Amino acid sequence: MTTCERSTRRRRAPLAALTSALLAAVALPATAVGATTAETRTPPVPARYAQQQLAWQACAEAPSLDCATMAVPRDWHHPAAGPDLTIAVSRHRATGPAKQIGTLLMAAGGPGGKGLLRPADFVRSAPAVGAAYDVVGFDQRGVGHSTQAHCQTPQEFQDFFAGDFRDDSPAATARVVDNSRRLAADCEQRSGGLLPYLTTEQTARDIDLFRSLLGERRIGYYGPSYATMIGAYYATLFPQRVERMVLDSNIGFEDTWEAFQLGQPMSFQRRFEEDFLPWLAARDSTYHYGATAAEAKARWEARRAVLHDHPLVEGALTIGPNQLDNGTIQAIYQAAGGFPALATALTAVDDWPNADPKARETAALVFGRYLSPEFLAEFFAVTCNDTAWSRNLDGWIARGAANTARWPLAGARTLAFAAVCASWPAPTAPRVRVTGAGLPPTLMLNSVHDPATYYEAALGAHRALRGSRLVTVTGNGDHGQYPGPDTCVRTAVEDYLLTGRAPARDIICASQQAA
User: Fold this and answer.
1) pLDDT of residue 31
2) Which residue among the candidates 90, 146, 191, 225 is catalytic per the annotation?
3) Residue 489 contacts by C-beta under 8 Å, 6 or more apart in sequence?
């Protein structure tokens, strides 16, 4: 395999200038704790890890995949200390008869997503890539079939999202802080010593062992959402091992988790108000939720106020104001499936006793299922461990109130999430500063209205990852752009993965919003 040739100096996307005002609007305070410097040297990989064999067999949950497990040290910096961890890995063999390009590794987002079975769906959606590559995946340390982190039971976890995060009364604020502190304490007490080692940097080292056991000198990489950070860290620690890399919907991996998450309330509110509500208003004849975006927003807010005083409770299902927020946040990640489901769920909640049974079922799915305790165990472990957070709870209470007033959809949960990391054990992970040094040109994708991995952060990550090319998607705000129906995005990605040719400069894809 050959590396891609470096092309001419990158030209900034025209939209970069247009976002300067938005960047100023969400300017974030520096964390109160100074960042550390990356220390990338580790002891040599002990033979008991480097010489293990992967015993492949058909995956029980996905017959098109082979599955295996590999042992990794709990701490790559002290491999002799502590018990081994198990990492579940998978492989989809290249289907094409032509000469195979190599191995493309996938990682999952979150943090907290499971990646073991994702190659199966990926190759169905991207058959040309699946024909040319062995596509491999894994459950990262802490989740799925790998060694898991444990924090709380589902019953205990219900308290974390109970109530109304907008309630700023002293009693409600104290309850939120207490719940966050309890979650952090439960994670520490029940992790069996695993907690400090659930970091992006440790995961990147797991990946390199996997690469070695596959017999590959270099690998391709595709990662969406949080997996962009995993990829950027891997590429920084092991640039000589990267053949081609696609980062789709980018975490602000050049800065801290604190800074990145403080920007999300703005982008979720933007997606809700500028994409979903106009979409809903344009379909008033179907959903009858308001003929203008302002009318639809007013009705959504009115329903939320009713749920504050009278949560909808039916059996195990509870829909209160936080559940309305959570379901809305989750649904607006993807327009094609999420917007109609959310609209149907909203109409069902408005007329619950008389709503169509299928609409009620949709509402139960939209508002009754959100981040699980298993997901958040990994989410908080990584986000609280990777980079330091301010531990000033009074400051977080004030910032939470400000975010609630300005960007209430996701801003209202600022205190609950930040207070977990403010109560977390002091992180010890080395800081990895992404530069792009020694890498072939890499490809980055991001939509301008992505609610979770917002475009402003992607621009910062793009600047940090020298030599990268950014594909800016202007016509939709979906989270995750490949594989998808947009021919401009698909062409850019598949030309790069299949031929090694990166765009000569940043490009714009004017994708249309899903109908």
Assistant:
1) 37
2) 225
3) 445, 471, 473, 481, 482, 509, 511
Closest CA to 349 of 376, 332, 327, 333: 327
| Burial of 71 (C-beta count, 10 Å sphere; 0-12/13-18/19+) | middle
Q: What is the pTM of this model?
A: 0.91
- Both tokens of 154, joined, read 């589902």
What are phi and psi for residue 220, nearest 5 degrees?
Answer: -85, 160
The answer to whether 227 touches 107, Cβ cutoff 8 Å, is yes
| pLDDT, tens digit, 9 for 90 and up, residues 288-320 | 999 999 999 999 999 999 999 999 999 999 999
For residue 89 the two structure tokens come to 């890995």
Q: Please answer whether residues 420 and 224 qualify as being in contact, where contact means their C-beta atoms are separated by less than 8 angstroms.
A: no
The tokens describing 123, both together, are 């190759």
Sorted by where each starts, the structural domains of the chain and their CATH numbers stand as 55-139+199-254+433-509 (3.40.50.1820), 152-190+263-426 (no CATH)
Low-confidence ranges of the chain (pLDDT < 50): 1-39
Q: Taking Cα atoms as reference points, which of 457, 474, 475 lies closest to residue 26? A: 457
* Helix/strand/coil for 247: strand
Respond yes or no: is residue 146 known to be catalytic.
Answer: no
| Gap between the Cα atoms of 326 and 367, Å rounded | 7
The residues, ordered by sequence, that sit 6+ positions from 199 with a Cβ below 8 Å of its Cβ are 381, 382, 385, 386, 427, 429
CA-wise closest residue to 201 among 247, 165, 151, 237: 237
Q: One of 450, 478, 486, 506 is an active-site residue; which one?
A: 450
Of 395, 458, 452, nearest to 421 by C-alpha is 395
449 part of the active site: no
pLDDT tens figures, 265-275: 999 999 999 99
Q: State the pLDDT at residue 29.
A: 35
H/E element, 317: strand 317-319
78 is catalytic: no
Residues 6+ apart with CB under 8 A from 343: 280, 283, 286, 287, 289
Catalytic member of 145, 449, 462, 479 = 479
User: Nearest 5 degrees, angle CA 420-CA 425-CA 427?
Assistant: 105
